[in-house]
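Issue: copy button drops trailing tokens. Both records pasted manually instead:
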Amino acid sequence: MNIIFPSSMENVNEVDTVYKREYVAASRIKNLNVFLFNYSEWFFNKKIQLNKGTSEAKEICIYRGWMFKPNEYKIFYHELADKNLQLLTAPAQYNRMHEFPLIYPKVAENTPRIKTYAFNERINIEELQKIFARFLVKDYVKSVKNTSFPKFFDQKTSQTNFDNWMKVFYKYRSDLLTGGICIKEYVDLKKYADHTNEWRVFYFHGNPFIILPNSGQSKEAPSVPQALVDKYSNLESPFYTIDYGEETNGQWIIIETGDGGVSGLPDNTNVNEFYKGLFRD
């Protein structure tokens, strides 16, 4: 098995500092070949330069690194294939887990409702207010947390006010805009000592091999029910994540899904245990 990380922008032989702990942990796994790709060359020219040679035969490779837009991932996939590194996750599988509306039909039973729009399509606020008491705005991948953008809109929001905020949303996401606009029903999550109760589960070949606290919550906060974790263990991708959250009424929901290669490890994750779990077979 092979795994590939992004290098620092300056040196193809040094891993990006964000992934250094993961790189070290992966390097300790027996029979795992660890590669770096020149992130600067990729970022500016969309070309892959590796820090060492590859096998003459095509071999499976796992990616751990920064998010790609779907079209970028497709290029990355084929560039590596030309060097005999076959990414475990195919482009269509990456897209399905990366862009939430694509996987939504599979998880709709346990996630807040959504409605989608094309970019720059005017969204009728009265239409949304008939469907949702409160709703948030994101594109198919991300919202704009930790900004001045409202956490949610409600029945008091006027069309003019909403239109103005959408202009702000487009400026915030800018070149990162992906897929389209996703309107999502807003729900309140239960808090423990001022921290919401969210968990990130990594799935590998249908096995939920690690369940991680994802919001800095206290140890007293209950974990996501195993039955719910197991329910979504086969979502047509070999390596993916699901973020779960506990609502104020004690019910559990799916917050987001993601590709396993580009989903970050929560703070305080034991990276050695993560990689032992990922490659235990």
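Record 2 (pasted manually too):
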Amino acid sequence: DYYDTLRIDKHLIPNIIADVSGKGTTAAFHMSQMKGIFHSLAQRDIEPKDFMTQANQALVYCLERGSFISATYFIINTEAKSVRYARAGHCPVLYYCAETCSSQFLKDKGVALGMVRNKSYSNFIQSNVFHYRPGDIMVLYTDGITEAKDGRGDEFGYDRLATVVSE
């Protein structure tokens, strides 16, 4: 799992959360490649869809077949109070709205990086935007949370995660 953030100017803060398939040193190596891609592309303030498309193109040459990286890339604009983002097969963002005291999962179109190994990847990803207000919460997580099991073998799940945030 990987999470990172970078400040590119007074108001723009790119963030990424990602999860690589597999385990061990190969998976760690792939995630270090993702870190390099993030730090390289995030500084350019490109649209999240373009970030994912370019990241996918770079990773296609690095990942062996069957390996992939799920990710969500965000650009937080503190002046406009907006979040632009693209989701590439990663867990949906959980967004809590303080005004309505409700939460929702942002389930957007997007295929994991490395799954489409040609120039058509941009057809499988989209940029999205939402505006936030004081008290709102954006929960970033990996499947390690939702798939965690209790003593009976029951997964924590998405519903419990939403309930915990709402409480």
